[in-house]
């Protein structure tokens, strides 16, 4: 019986210690986010992509995937969206929807990924935007991203 109480006490101690450590991590995370707070701004994002083949610069005509998400200072992710489409015969695809996100911290970020789904696999490009990247862009972000894929990707 004494052995069971000792084991139970040890388990309780370890459990409490884990809770305290998690709480301390959260406090440090909250403190870090508090220190990097900025004035709240909203920014819209509108993207095109141009895809060409390596070497020849021949435009890629094929399927595309688009993903965008917001990650807050504390690591929480929200506002994840995706679109599918295809580049035209000039290698361009315009994402048909614009997205607006709030930024209130220098560690907030929006991540944008384009994927060309070719028969030879997939090829992608990712751009990350932070508070500092968008703070002076008062009319939002309008950008054409370039992706160069291997010459034999069809």
Descriptive report:
With 154 residues, the protein is an alpha+beta fold. Helix content is 25%, strand content 49%. Strands 1, 4, 5 and 8 form a 4-stranded mixed beta sheet that branches. It has a 4-stranded antiparallel beta sheet with strand order 3-2-6-7.
Largest sheet: 4 strands, mixed
Q: Which structural category fits the helices and strands? A: alpha+beta
What is the tally of helical segments? Answer: 2
- What order do the SSEs take from the amino end to the carboxyl end, as H and E? HEEEEEEEHE
Rg, Cα atoms, Å: 23 Å
Distance from N terminus to C terminus (CA atoms, Å) equals 71 Å
Number of strands: 8
Structure at a glance:
The chain is α+β, with helices and mostly antiparallel strands.
Task: Note the main attributes of this structure.
single chain, 154 residues, alpha+beta, 4-stranded mixed sheet, 4-stranded antiparallel sheet, 2 helices
Topology:
Layout: H1 2-35, E1 37-53, E2 63-71, E3 77-86, E4 92-94, E5 99-105, E6 109-118, E7 121-130, H2 131-134, E8 141-149
Parallel strand pairs: 1-8
Antiparallel strand pairs: 1-4, 1-5, 2-3, 2-6, 6-7
């Amino acid at each position: 019986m004494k052995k069971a109480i000792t084991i139970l006490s040890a388990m309780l101690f370890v459990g409490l210690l884990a809770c305290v450590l998690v709480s301390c991590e959260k406090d440090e995370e909250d403190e870090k986010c508090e220190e990097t707070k900025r004035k709240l701004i909203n920014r819209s994002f509108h993207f095109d992509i141009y895809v060409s083949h390596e070497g020849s610069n021949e435009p890629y005509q094929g399927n595309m995937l688009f993903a965008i998400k917001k990650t807050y200072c504390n690591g929480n992710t929200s506002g994840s969206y995706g679109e599918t489409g295809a580049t035209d015969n000039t290698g361009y695809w315009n994402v048909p929807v614009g997205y607006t996100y709030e930024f209130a911290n220098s560690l907030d970020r929006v991540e944008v990924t384009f994927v060309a789904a070719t028969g030879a696999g997939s090829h992608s490009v990712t751009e990350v935007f932070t508070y500092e990247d968008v703070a002076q862009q008062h009319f939002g972000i309008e950008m054409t991203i370039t992706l160069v894929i291997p010459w034999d990707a069809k």
